[in-house]
Amino acid sequence: MRTKFKTWGTMKAATLLLGVLLAFSTLLINSCSSEDKNTEVVKQAVQDSTTEYTCAMHPQIRSNEPGTCPICGMELIPVEKKDSDKQASAEESTEYTCAMHPQIRSNEPGTCPICGMELIPVEKDSQQSEEEAHAHTLSPEALALANIVIDTVKKMPIQHTIYMLGKVEPDERLITWATARVPGRLEKLYVSFTGQEVRKGQVIGYIYSPELISAQQELLEAYLLKEQSPQLFEAAKQRLLLWSLTEAEIDSILKTGKVKYYFPVVSPVSGTVLEMKVEEGDYVKEGEIIFEVADLRRNIWVMLEAYEQDLPWLSVGQKVTLSVEGLGNKTWTGKITYIDPFVDRDRRIARVRVELPNPNLELRPGMFVRGKVTVSTGKKKVLAVPRTAILWTGKRSLVWVKLPGDDFRFVLREVDLGARFGDYYIIKSGLREGEEIVTYGVFKVDASAQLMGMQSMMGGGGSVHQHGGHGGGSSSSETSPSASMKCGAM
């Protein structure tokens, strides 16, 4: 009996222990389940905090919290983290522009600063250059309708002829003035009109001079006292010599012992009278000009007028062919001896001097003369484009270049121009040989680009590309007029 109760007690204790163990296990399981739920809640909260919200109509609106769009008031919708990463990656490689103003470019979404429209993404081609990104495309129909002409840039030899007009003028180095050596009155004057021919030493008139008469009287008195005062005699004689009297004339006065009242005035050179300054009977001062004379047969000047755009092609020593309309087909050949170092501010020309002998007096001062200079580089070629292909903005020179391909895509490019010859300009840099450019209708292409908001000579669409490396074998030394003329000038 005692054994039975002992067994029952043991079983009861075991049952109680098992119950305690079960209760403890239940509490432990509930605690773990609660921790899992809390972890999920924390994870969800973290996920919610990293979720971005956007507007379906305005994707540029981004928010970390739900709400409404500040533009249209629509409810913001969540953007999954995965999609957000893709969007961020896409935004990094996406450029935004305005549908109405394509020149507006931005790396971030927003609104157009001109019209306020939402910017739209523009996919970038990884193989597309910056120049191609700003290309302006025209259809073949538009090109035909606008009569656009496209030509290939090429090298060509220079054969440039410069035409100039001018006048015959006396050689300034051969102009002389006949002056009065002593003060007095011109009693006789044998040269009385412009154009009269005179010879060196020819008597052109007689002068009456009271000062000269007094000097002769002093000479005669000093001559009588020559033995006692030789210095006084030499001083009186020297005074007459300074007044251009000759030794023979002085000896004649001493021999005759008489004073001469009239002395001749002689021409200092042979030539043609260009201008009369006095008339017979006028009183002249010592050194006053009586007339101007020049030797027109020995040498004359032809002063030609060259426009400033032709000056780079002209140099001293070049041959010039001259002709006068009134003398038929006869021509003269001379060389440039001088070019003015300045340009006339009003007429924008510089004077070019050519010297010629004129033994037969065929070329007369005042005649109109035509001059022609031919410049050639021979076989040497330079890169050049027609002047109709150039757009000028004041500071820059631009051309429309056709991009390679079958479609008609054009880009605006800045070029560095050299000298002009005829209807062409030398290209120093900016173009390569073989490239295609618009040579006729450039303003129509530029106007079309302006209407589309693309790059144009008036601006827009970003900066115009400068391709300094596109010189294409044409350097500044190779295309300078001076270097070109060294190759041959005719």
Question: Which structural class do you get from the secondary structure elements?
Answer: alpha+beta
CATH fold name of the largest domain: conserved putative lor/sdh protein from methanococcus maripaludis s2 fold
Please outline the major beta sheet.
Answer: 6 strands, antiparallel, barrel
Major β-sheet strand ordering: 9-18-21-20-19-22
Approximate helicity band: 25-40%
Poorly predicted regions are 1-8, 31-39, 45-49, 469-480, 482-490
Domain module tally: 5
Into which percentage range does the β-strand content fall?
Answer: 25-35%
Q: Determine the N-to-C terminus distance.
A: 153 Å
Q: Which architecture of the largest domain per CATH?
A: Beta Barrel
What can you tell me about this protein's structure?
With 490 residues, the protein is α+β, with helices and mostly antiparallel strands. It folds into 5 domains: 45-92, no CATH class; 97-124, no CATH class; 133-157 and 380-485, Beta Barrel (conserved putative lor/sdh protein from methanococcus maripaludis s2 fold), CATH 2.40.420.20; 163-170 and 297-376, Elongation Factor Tu (Ef-tu), domain 3 (Beta Barrel); 189-294, no CATH class. It is built from 10 helices and 28 strands. The termini are far apart.
